[in-house]
Amino acid sequence: MEEVFNDFLNATEELDEITLEGYFGEDAKNLVQSREDIGVNEYLYESLKLWIEDTNQYGKDKVKEYVVILFKLYLDAYKQGGQEAIDVMTAFWMGTKDNPELECFSAYSEFVRLNTETKTILGQLPKTNAKISQIKKAASSITSTYSKGVEFIGKLLTTCIILKKIASNETYNYYRIYNMTLFDKIKLFNSDSNPNHQKLTNIINRNLRNSEAHLSLNYDYKNTNFILKKKANGKIVNENISLNEMLLEIFPSVGWFTQAFVYSGILLVLAHDDKPSFIKSIKEIYGDV
Q1: Buried b vs exposed e over 215-232: b needs ≥16 C-beta within 10 Å?
Q2: Distance between CA 127 and CA 118 in Å, rounded?
Q3: What's 169's DSSP letter?
Q4: pTM, entire model
Q5: Contact 87, 98 (CB under 8 A)
Q6: pLDDT digits (tens, 9 = 90+) for 230-249
Q7: CA 145 to CA 163: how far, in whole Å?
Q8: What are the phi and psi torsion angles at 232 (to 5°)?
Q9: Of the candidates 188, 213, 208, 206, which has an alpha carbon nearest to the alpha carbon of residue 198?
Q10: Residue 236: enclosing H or E segment and its boundaries?
C-alpha cells in the first residue's frame, strides 16, 4: 500500500505532525496520540464527538443540514451501486491504484491548515486601533482561504456528481468530470434541480474566488468592505461585499461544506461498521429523531 498510495500516506503523515504540534488544539492532539490504542471506529466516533461537543463552533446548524443532504446522497448511491459508491468515496481521499495522484487528502489538509491560520489571525487582530497592515493581512488571509476552500469544494463536487450518476444508474467518465471547470460542475450537479443539492452549491461565490486568484479583490479599510472587480456587460464594475457578509456568511461557508462532507462520511462508516456508535452519534447531533 505504501508504494501505491504514497501521496495519500505522505499527506496524512504531514497532517498528523501538524496536529501533534497542537496546531488544531489540545483535544485534537490528544486524540491523534491515542489513535494506536483505540480501534478505527472508536477513533472516528471520537473525532466526530470533538465537533459535537464544541460549543464555540459558529454555523453548526448549517453543517448539520449539509450532513443530512450528503448522507442521503451517499445512501442513494450505495443502494444502487453498492461497492462502486464506496470505491468512489475512497478514491476521493486516497486516489486509485491506477492513479494515486487523484487523492484529495493533501488538498483537505492544506485547506484546514489555512482555515485555522486565518481564524488565528482574526483572533489576534486588535479590536481597536489595529494597524492598516494588520487589517490588510487579515483580509488577504480571509479571501485566499475562501478561494482555497472553493477549490477544494470543486474536488468534492466531482465525487458528488459521480455519486448522483451512480444513484441514477447513469454512465460517467471520472476524468472528464474531474477536469470540468467549477462552473460546469455546479451546472451538472444541479441539472436535476434538486433544491437540497442547490443549497450546497449556493455557498460558492465564483466571482469572488476568481477575482482573488487574479488580484482583483481589495479590502477598503476606510469603508470596511471588500471591493470585487468583475466583468459585466463588457465592462469592469465594482461589487461591494460588507465585512459582516464576508465574516458571517461567505468565509465560513466553505468550512461548513467541508465539515459536512467529513462528518457525513464518518457517519456512513459507523452506520456500516458500528451501528451503536452511529445511533449514539445521530442522537448527540440531532436529538431523538
Answers
A1: ebbbbeeeeebbebebee
A2: 16
A3: T
A4: 0.91
A5: no
A6: 888 888 888 899 999 999 99
A7: 27
A8: -155, 120
A9: 188
A10: strand 235-242
